[in-house]
Design the sequence.
């Protein structure tokens, strides 16, 4: 545990990526595989469930320290991070946990999920008493399911590859799995040859760059393929060894949520990996993204839900055929393998993305304007001779998105950020008019400039009406332009409408709150 805490502090203070890679290589060279397995799991953003509800931790600390709940919340507001707040409030500092990192998880933390409340409390307090403040902070973040390290899978795979003398692409591929962290799993990831451990995880996804330059700069239009960008879940469909898996871009197995896709995928040739998009789809047209969200939240959906919200896998690319990695082939060769796979009459839940015909760049402007009418979010441009690369790289794939919807809305709530933004109000909730009442419609991320953010922060501090923990209720006097990409009816939202990717783009200092838009305006966009 002490070694991991030291690594955490080193990574936090590192000035650039090369320092982080060197720190990781030193750590892996000195750390047993059982500990390294859990470290890799956290570094690559592996899922950790919340082991104890934050409400319970607050109650325990308030009672133990005889601290009024309002005072604990005030401390939380100042730090912006509950894990850090509890670590700082706990009295004293131990000499450090004299246990291995893997035993911290396997013997102390993971058993908390099934323990009685009093046993949870006793165990956590004992860990806090023995820990240094850094260890206490890390334990709290793990318990709350919020440990995020500024490294990611890319730097982790680079460090592991250099440490083991392997190809970084191979290591990154192996890191895409969701194996339980064990010494064997860690050693398999670094094995030079391990034919008995077939690769079941997806390949790293190739992501398009936003198009910020003029289309004519891309050269000859005949060298490019163009297709619609559909608003769904990017996924890879893997058929290997008689098993079918569907992975999301967030490295989550989503196979169980879409059994109809799974059934038809059994007709695919073994050794196939397809890149595509899962869509809610009916009558050759995508349904709203909100319908797809209803499906992804249901593992093993009922036949009724499958009928109400049918889905399809739209194949975009082919990455493996007959067990052979074909990512280095040009795009036109890869996609030529896709169409023959779907010649089955009974295949209702698979589609193949069809390129759009065009001869000149000016022809694309009217097509982009049609995107939202067709249920798409824009156009994707791919160089026909491009290999399937990794990550978000410029040059071969570009996404040209349709302009977002925008409305002028009134700021009613604000909340401070976390980490280096903990001392500024950077999370905003906006409302629209419904008669004489302001109704919440979007919780926004910020696209404001630094100077605009400071203006909003000053306004919030000077115009707070109420405090509810970290949230400030402010005078409804400030108007901002809120952008969003899509919307759909929703019973879960007070406005009756959910919006996709809301963000505040700029101040509307010249507008009074009464000039902001209404819910009726929002409804006309449905």
Sequence:
């Amino acid at each position: 545990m002490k070694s991991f805490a030291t690594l955490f502090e080193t990574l936090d203070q590192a000035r650039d990526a090369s320092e982080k890679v060197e720190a990781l290589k030193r750590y892996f060279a000195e750390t047993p595989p059982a500990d390294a397995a859990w470290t890799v799991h956290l570094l690559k953003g592996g899922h950790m469930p919340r082991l104890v509800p934050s409400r319970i931790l607050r109650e325990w600390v308030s009672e133990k320290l005889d601290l009024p709940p309002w005072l604990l919340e005030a401390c939380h507001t100042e730090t912006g991070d509950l894990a850090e707040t509890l670590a700082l409030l706990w009295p004293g500092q131990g000499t450090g946990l004299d246990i291995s990192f893997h035993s911290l998880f396997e013997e102390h933390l993971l058993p908390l999920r099934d323990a009685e409340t009093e046993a949870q409390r006793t165990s956590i307090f004992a860990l806090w008493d023995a820990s240094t403040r850094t260890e206490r902070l890390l334990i709290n973040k793990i318990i709350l399911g919020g440990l995020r390290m500024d490294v990611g899978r890319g730097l982790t795979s680079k460090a592991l590859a250099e440490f083991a003398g392997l190809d970084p692409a191979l290591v990154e591929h192996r890191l895409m799995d969701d194996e339980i962290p064990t010494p064997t799993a860690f050693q398999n990831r670094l094995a030079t040859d391990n034919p008995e451990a077939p690769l079941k995880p997806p390949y790293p996804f190739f992501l398009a760059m936003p198009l910020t330059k003029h289309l004519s700069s891309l050269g000859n239009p005949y060298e490019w393929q163009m297709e619609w960008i559909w608003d769904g879940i990017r996924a890879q469909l893997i058929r290997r060894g008689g098993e079918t898996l569907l992975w999301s871009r967030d490295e989550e197995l989503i196979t169980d949520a879409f059994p109809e896709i799974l059934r038809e995928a059994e007709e695919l040739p073994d050794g196939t990996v397809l890149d595509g998009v899962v869509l809610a789809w009916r009558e050759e047209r995508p349904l709203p993204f909100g319908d797809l969200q209803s499906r992804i939240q249901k593992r093993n959906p009922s036949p009724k839900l499958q009928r109400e919200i049918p889905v399809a896998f739209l194949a975009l690319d082919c990455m493996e055929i007959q067990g052979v990695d074909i990512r280095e082939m040009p795009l036109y060769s890869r996609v030529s393998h896709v169409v023959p796979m779907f010649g089955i009459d009974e295949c209702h839940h698979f589609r193949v993305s069809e390129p759009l015909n065009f001869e000149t760049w000016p022809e694309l402007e009217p097509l982009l304007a049609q995107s939202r009418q067709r249920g798409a979010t824009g156009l994707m441009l791919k160089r026909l001779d491009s290999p399937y690369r990794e990550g978000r790289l410029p040059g071969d794939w570009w996404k040209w998105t349709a302009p977002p919807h925008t409305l002028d809305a009134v700021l009613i709530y604000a909340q401070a950020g976390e980490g280096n933004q903990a001392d500024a109000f950077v999370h905003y909730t906006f409302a629209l008019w419904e008669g004489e009442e302001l109704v919440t419609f979007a919780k926004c991320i910020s696209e404001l400039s630094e100077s605009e953010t400071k203006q909003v922060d000053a306004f919030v501090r000077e115009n707070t009406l109420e405090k509810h923990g970290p949230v400030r209720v402010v005078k409804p006097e400030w108007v901002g332009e809120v952008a969003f990409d899509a919307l759909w009816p929703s019973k879960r939202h007070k406005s009756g409408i959910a919006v996709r990717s809301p963000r505040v783009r700029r101040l509307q200092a010249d507008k009074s709150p009464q000039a902001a838009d209404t819910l009726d305006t929002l409804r006309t966009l449905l």
About this structure: The chain has 19 helices and 22 strands. The two ends are 53 Å apart (CA to CA). The chain has a mean pLDDT of 87.
